[in-house]
C-alpha cells in the first residue's frame, strides 16, 4: 500500500495537517509526479517531495495553507543557483497543497 | 477541504487489487472548488464512481477521461510490451466549459505481483528486496519447511503446494512477474509448463548457461512455441557480477524492474558521456 495513503488515513490523525502532491515535474527533479508528503502543523513531515530547498518551500507553503484553509498550487523552481556554481537539480515542479482538516479525520 | 471518503475508497480499491483514477481540482477561480475530488474505480463490471465531491454535471467528462486512462490499449494506459516510452501516471487536464479550472488526473494500479517459485536460499533475499521495491510477493514451494511464512515474513502469501497445482491456482495476469528458482530443473519445468496459457509481465529462470539451455531446448521439443520460450529470461538476472545469494537476488529484482520499466540495464554513465559530447 502507498505509504502516504496510510499516513493520510491514520486513525490517530487528530492534528491539523496538509497534503502536498507533485502534479507535474519537468526537467530533472528529485521525485516524480504523484510523490506526496504530509506536513503537520508543528513542521513535522512524513514522506518526501524531494528534500532540500524545494521541499522547504513546500513545507512553508503548507503551513500557510493550514492557516488559511485554502488549497494552493505552488510552482517550485529548482533551476536556481545556491551559493556555488552548481545547479540544484535543474527542473521545475508544480505542487498542489491542500489541508487535511480535523473534520476529515474524525469522520471515519 | 479534501474528503476523507475519497482516500478511504482509494485504499479499499488498491486493497482489493483494483485500478483507480483520482481527479483533483488544482486550479479554479472559485476557491471552494479547489481540492474537490472524484475517485473512479475499475471493477469487474466496468468503471464506476466510488466517491466524489465534484459537481454532478462534470461526471460524464470525468468518466470519459478515466476510461481512456484505464484502457490498456490507450496511449496513456498500461505500458505495452514493445513500448519503451513510459506513460505519464499523472496529467493535468483543463475542464472544458469551465474557464480557469484544471484537474490533476492520477492513475493508481495495485502493487505489481511477484511470484517466487521455490523457497530456497535465493528466494529469501529476493522476497525481501522485491518487497522493498514495491512488489506484492507470493512464494510457492512444495516442502512445508520451505513454504513457511516465518521464513518469508515480507511475503503477502506463502503457498505450500506442488508446483503445477500452485501455479495453476494463482491468478497470473499481465502485471505479474514470475521468478523460477526451485531446487531442480524438473521442478522449474513444471512451473514453466504451468505458465503455458498465461501472459505474465516477466518470467525468469535460474541456472547455469548450459543447464538452462537444456531446459529451454526441452520445452521446444515438447512443442512450446519459439515465442513462448524466447520470452523466458534465463539464466536469470542482470549481469552485475553477483556471487552471493543476496547479490543474485539483487540481480534478479533489478532485471524484473528493468523489464517492467523498459530500462536498458546498462550504466547511466555511458548515456551521460554521450550527452556531454553532443
Account of the 3D structure:
The complex is a heterodimer of chains A (108) and B (278). With 108 residues, chain A is of the alpha+beta class. Chain A has one domain (3-9, 18-100). Chain A contains three helices and five strands, in the order H-E-E-E-H-E-E-H. Chain A has helices at 3-8, 52-68, 102-107; strands at residues 17-26, 36-40, 45-47, 72-77, 92-100. A five-stranded antiparallel sheet of chain A has the order 3-2-1-5-4. In chain A, a hairpin with a 4-residue loop joins strand 2 and strand 3. The longest helix of chain A has 17 residues, at 52-68. Chain A starts with a helix and ends with a helix. The model of chain A is unreliable at 103-108 (pLDDT under 50). Chain B is an alpha/beta fold and 278 residues long. Chain B folds into two domains: 4-108, no CATH class; 113-261, NAD(P)-binding Rossmann-like Domain (Rossmann fold). Chain B is built from nine helices and eleven strands. Chain B has a six-stranded parallel sheet, with helices on both faces. In chain B, helix 5 (185-194) packs across helix 6. The termini of chain B are far apart. Chain A binds chain B through residues 1-2, 5-6, 8-9, 19, 21-24, 32-34, 69-73, 94, 96, 98-101, 103-105, 107-108, and chain B through 1-5, 7-8, 10-11, 14-15, 24, 26-27, 31, 34-35, 88-90, 92, 104, 106, 108, 111.
List keywords for this structure.
heterodimer; A: 108 residues; alpha+beta; 5-stranded antiparallel sheet; 5 strands; disordered C terminus; B: 278 residues; alpha/beta; Rossmann fold; 2 domains; 6-stranded parallel sheet; 9 helices; elongated
